[in-house]
Amino acid sequence: MAGAHCRPAFPDATLPAVESHLEELLQRYPALDICRSDIEKAFQLLVGCFARGGKLLLCGNGGSAADCDHIVGELMKAYLRPRPLSSEVRARLIDADPEVGPALGETLQGGLPAINLSAGGALLSAFGNDVKGEHAYAQAVYGYGRQGDVLLGLSTSGNAANVRAALCVGRAIGLATIGLTGQGGGRMAGRCDVLIAVPAKRTFEIQELHLPVYHCLCAMVEAHFFG
C-alpha cells in the first residue's frame, strides 16, 4: 500500500515513463551508463520504501548537504508532474476547517517523505559539542530511522566518516542504504546496499554528475507514484 501522501502506484501504466527518464539521462550523460544497474536498484529501493509508507533520510557534507536539500525539495512537492490531492483528502480538509480546508485542498500536493539530516543544525551542533561530532548523523539516523526506511549518504570521496557512521547505524537498525559517491566509492564501497559511484575523481566533477543522477531518480519515482 502506498504511503499516506502518495497515490497508489500502477507499475504497468508508469513503466514507459520511468524508463524514459533513465534513457534520457544516459543519452545526455553517456559516461553514466556504467551506473545504470545501480540507478535501477536504487529506484527499486525507493519505490519499495515509499509504497510501504516509509521515508527517505539523507546526509552529506558541504555541497553534498546542499544536494540533500535539493533532493528533498524534488520529492516533497511536485517536480515534473502534477500531484493533486485525492477527493477523500480534500473532503477531510474541509471537515477539519470549512474556511481554510478548501484552499488547502487546491494548493497542497502529494509528497514523498524525505528528511535532510544535514539541515538539523541544533541537533548536530549539540551532539557534536556534547558527545562526538563524527557521530552526529548516526545519532539522527538512530532517532529518526525505522525499519523499512531508506538512508541515502552522499560523499564525493566515499570517505566521509560521519556519513559512513550513519550508514553503519542505518544497516544495523534495518534501513536500506544507498551511497552516492565518486569513482571507486572510497570506504563506502561494500558498506551500502546500493552504491552509485559516478565515473569522476575531482570533487566538482563528481558533484556535476551527482545532480543528473538524483534528478533522474526523483523523476523516476515521481512517475511511478504520480504517473
Account of the protein in words:
Helix 7 runs parallel beside helix 8 (161-172). The chain is globular, with a radius of gyration of 18 Å. It has a single domain, classed as 3-Layer(aba) Sandwich (Rossmann fold). The model is unreliable at 1-13 (pLDDT under 50). The protein is built from 9 helices and 5 strands, in the order ααβαααβααβαββα. It has a 5-stranded parallel sheet, sandwiched between helices. With 227 residues, it is α/β, with parallel strands linked by helices.
Summarize the structure.
The chain is of the alpha/beta class. It has helices at residues 11-28, 36-51, 63-76, 87-96, 101-107, 121-132, 136-144, 161-172, 203-226, and strands spanning 56-59, 114-116, 150-154, 176-181, 194-197.
Write the layout of secondary structure elements.
Layout: H1 11-28, H2 36-51, E1 56-59, H3 63-76, H4 87-96, H5 101-107, E2 114-116, H6 121-132, H7 136-144, E3 150-154, H8 161-172, E4 176-181, E5 194-197, H9 203-226
Helix pairs in contact: 1-9, 2-9, 3-9, 4-5, 6-7, 7-8
